[in-house]
Amino acid sequence: SSPSLHQKGLKFFFRPGPHDEMYSVAMFDFLKYVRSKQPGTANTIALLYEDTLFGNDTSKIQRQLAEQQKVEIVADVKYRANSPSLSSEVQLLKSKNPDVILATSYTTDAILLVRTMNELGFKPKGIISQNGGFIEPAFLSAVGPQADGIISRASFVPDLAASRPSLKAANELFKKRSGKDLNDNTARELIALIILADAINRAKDT
Asked: Using CA atoms, how far apart are residues 153 and 131, in angstroms rounded to an integer?
């Protein structure tokens, strides 16, 4: 989902779903909407992101969007992916006290972040996650009620099955094999595979 991948001129790179720049735009549009309804509630943000392509590309786009919308970034915190501790990072965030944290983390880091915030008694007005680990069943099982109030962007929700019978059937097949429902990550992986299969079938060649 890195926004830089389709800009490299890669001959055999295809992206069937949204990328993180599009998601970040939606996140900032949401913040703008919140400010219009509740002035003063989302004026300052903090960026928290891991140090791989996922976090670096996302933070670059979010800095640009913050400048465009004149949103103040009070903390810009990069951490090592799969870090054994996020105490210093959370303490820094707590000292800066942003209205909203924009978090970009995979599952183990998301679990560690939420647990550390709880241990240090830090709960900002809002956390908006760049999907990643924050929507995984393992995250929700690990942190339980501590995840309450965290918002994530997503291009898929199981509720769509109510209006799309094919989705219900696909979800049942997936759940039978995996023991869990499709989520944003796995649904996009499924769609990518379906598109690849369709392309091969149409071309009648690999």
From this structure: 6
Q: For residue 203, what are the CA distances in angstroms to 12, 81, 196, 197, 199?
A: 15, 40, 11, 10, 6
Q: Which strands form 44-50's sheet, in the order they lie side by side?
A: 72-79, 44-50, 100-104, 126-129, 150-152
Contact 54, 132 (CB under 8 A): yes
Rg of the chain (C-alpha set): 18
Beta bridge mates, 46: 75, 101
Q: Confirm if 59 and 49 have CB atoms less than 8 A apart.
A: yes
pLDDT at 13: 87
C-alpha 119/C-alpha 126 separation (Å) is 17
Helices (H), 19-126: 20-37, 53-68, 87-96, 107-119
| pTM reported for the whole predicted model | 0.86
Residue 178 phi/psi, 5° resolution? -110, -20
CB contact at 8 A, 134 and 105: yes
* Bridge partner list, 49: 78, 104
Residue 125's φ and ψ, nearest 5 degrees, are: -60, -30
Question: Residue 136: is its pLDDT beyond 90?
Answer: no
